[in-house]
């Protein structure tokens, strides 16, 4: 099984090289490819990704949905694995995904863990073990058979926010074989630390509520950008 790892980036210099290096260390030779789909970085992201050995492609449109779809067009793997640049999957990633794919699973994600032991972050992470779409977010990563991804026409590029949760709902409409892995992806808590852990979680909760009540993407993006601290 060939695995295509697709990483959307925007100004991720300083960490994309380390992530690609880690993936190359844990994944078996000739059984994977790493595609970095950049949304217009103006730092050293592209240079760093190239130097680390990833296939780098520039998306004409900025936004994770567009960038991940763009990266998927270059993928040669039977299975696509979408991973955020600030997230680190388990060391036996390939073995775990190959194991469930062989048992007819068609898509899935991992549970979430933060690189911070704050009790609120541990609580937020704990909820990701439940098979409830409301708790599915991109930081958990996503693996999916390429033919299933193509059948549902990939990510919805109209969405700048909530594209990760929306695609899971569509995946479930075409297959019952979506699995929540028992292992975790470790993601950076940097935004929580800079914005306040409880404050940022409240912001995310409000965005989810507004999304399900039909708020426009323009409103959600404006709200997010207006309250987020760098």
Characterization of this structure:
By secondary structure, this protein is of the alpha/beta class. It folds into two domains: 3-188, Spore Coat Polysaccharide Biosynthesis Protein SpsA, Chain A, CATH 3.90.550.10; 193-230, no CATH class. It contains ten helices and eight strands. The chain has helices at residues 16-26, 45-52, 64-72, 93-102, 119-126, 146-151, 163-174, 190-195, 197-212, 217-227, and strands at residues 3-9, 32-38, 55-58, 79-82, 87-88, 107-114, 142-145, 178-187. An eight-stranded mixed sheet has the order 3-2-1-4-7-6-8-5, with helices on both faces. Strand 2 (32-38), helix 2 and strand 3 form a beta-alpha-beta unit. Helix 1 (16-26) runs parallel beside helix 2 (45-52) and helix 9 (197-212) packs antiparallel against helix 10 (217-227). The radius of gyration is 17 Å and the shape is globular. The termini are far apart. The mean pLDDT is 96.
Brief characterization of the structure:
The chain is α/β, with parallel strands linked by helices.
Q: Beta fraction of the residues?
A: 15-25%
CATH-defined fold name of the largest domain: Spore Coat Polysaccharide Biosynthesis Protein SpsA, Chain A
Specify the CATH class of the largest domain: Alpha Beta
Number of helices: 10
Physical arrangement of strands within the biggest beta sheet: 3-2-1-4-7-6-8-5
Structural class: alpha/beta
* Shape category: globular
Number of domains: 2
- Tell me about the biggest sheet? 8 strands, mixed
Low-confidence stretches: none
Number of strands: 8
Distance between the termini: 40 Å
The CATH fourth-level homologous superfamily of the largest domain:
Spore Coat Polysaccharide Biosynthesis Protein SpsA, Chain A
Overall helicity: 40-55%
- What is the CATH architecture assignment of the largest domain? Alpha-Beta Complex
Structural Rg:
17 Å
Run of helices and strands: EHEHEHEEHEHEHHEHHH
Mean pLDDT: 96
